[in-house]
Design a protein that fits this description.
The complex is a heterodimer of chains A (about 70) and B (about 400). Chain A is of the alpha+beta class and about 70 residues long. Chain A has helices at about 20-25, 45-55; strands at about 5-10, 30, 35-40, 60-65, 70-74. Chain A has one domain: 2-Layer Sandwich (Alpha-Beta Plaits). Chain A has a three-stranded antiparallel β-sheet. In chain A, a hairpin with a 5-residue loop joins strand 2 and strand 3. The longest helix of chain A is centred in the last third of the chain and has 9 residues, at about 45-55. Chain B has a single domain (about 10-405), classed as Cytochrome p450. Chain B has 18 helices and ten strands. A five-stranded mixed β-sheet of chain B has the order 1-2-8-5-3, with helices on both faces. In chain B, helix 12 packs across helix 13 (about 215-225) and helix 16 packs across helix 18. Chain B is globular, with a radius of gyration of 21 Å. Classes of the chains: A alpha+beta (about 70), B alpha+beta (about 400). The interface of A and B includes residues 13, 55, 56 and 58 of A.
Chain lengths: ~70, ~400
Amino acid sequence: MARKLRIRVDHDVCVGNAMCETIASKVFRLNENRQSEAVDPAGDTVEKILEAAENCPVSAIFVEDAETGEQLFP
Amino acid sequence: MATALHDDMFTSDVIANPYAYYGRLRDEDPVHWNDTYALWVITRHDDVTWMTRHNELFSSAVFRNDPKPAYPAIDESDLGLYEYVRNYQADQFIQHDRPEHLDMRKIVHGYFTPKAMESWRPFVVSAIKELLDAAEEKGSMDVMRDLATPLPVLVIAQMMGVPAEDRPYVRELAEKLLYIGRGEYDRMPILTDGMKGMIDYVSPLVDERIVKPGDDFISVLASGEKKGVFSRHQVLVNTSLLLLAGHETTINLICNGTLSFIQHPDQWALYKQDPVGRAKWATEECLRYDAPVKSIQRLASQDIEVRGKVMEKNDRIRWFISSANRDPNVFAEPDKFDISRQPNPHVAFGNGVHHCLGATLARVEGQEVFKALAERFPNIRLESEELDYQPSITFRSLKSLPVTWQ
């Protein structure tokens, strides 16, 4: 069974660069303030989600395993 | 009675102290029509943030699509050169809108992730050590000439695989390219000289990387040609752009930040108590307080109303980072240099899809410079109280910054 993730986007930091939305468009969506929201943590593979987090230019995305709490990114 | 504000943004008073001029605009007329240069001047933080995040309304294709002549005015006999400048600038990836901008940004974005840039920190540290060793022997230095200029050129040249001995020549060309943000009547020949020189300089490097790609950044750009995203001219122009963008802004961060510390001895004392622990937020405050880039231009993509003013399609818009970063609606005591400020939502790197590609690298370089200065030259002070800035509307660039520490 696929790993369940908990994804947080820090809105004090997010600049709306939207690269996360480009990489994993079902997971990340810009809100009306043009900042990223994690709308569906199961919307793509773990690899794609981690790639999106790594490509955030301001490191605003935090990913952890929802069940174990293990931090996967950063 | 308060005097009316003049509209000439290139006068010596505005160049010397942009904060007073744009601060007054922010208070009195935050969406201001500048009649002299026929453009909108945007000065509030919330407006700048909103506009930078609505890239579909404000076009970055400024040089391709601006229907108005160059400003300030240029020599009429230089109109042909201005066409060259427009065609050159228009091929920069930052001068594009989506969808092309996204295709181009995807080529280069992955090279500059925070994680990838962190891996350059040891190189940055050793480059700073080498430069400061040389300065220490002399007992004084011009921060601009001896540290701020060579450091980022060294780093970007290493990333691009450019021979170290070419650095002075690259800097010479870059200085000509910086005339893009200036107002001199006869600036076009200097500017086009720099652009042609850059194209000639990077051409053989690109030719080589197309045939034999390496792990350097020119190879990354060259891969964009193979993928059909960049034309050859675009590869050349963007190689030049990154050579330039990668260092002018960092020079300003280092010089303006060092000056801010020297001019605020209480903050310098606080910083020296824990340079490693304080480097991150102190660097953010340097970026906010005296930002390397003062303003950025766009064109209205359609008619649009902002704060009751109607911008028409293709109107020029300039938003002022230096004013947004001092907006009292966002920053408590905005004119105070406070290295403990947290969070610090400054807009020094812009926002939205055009957020500065090299932001993390600039941060790494700034943090390591301020750490090294605190550790090695804790008594750093100005050699002269006279400070002179380049007459640019785009960059906040000191001409020199002579210091001593003895």
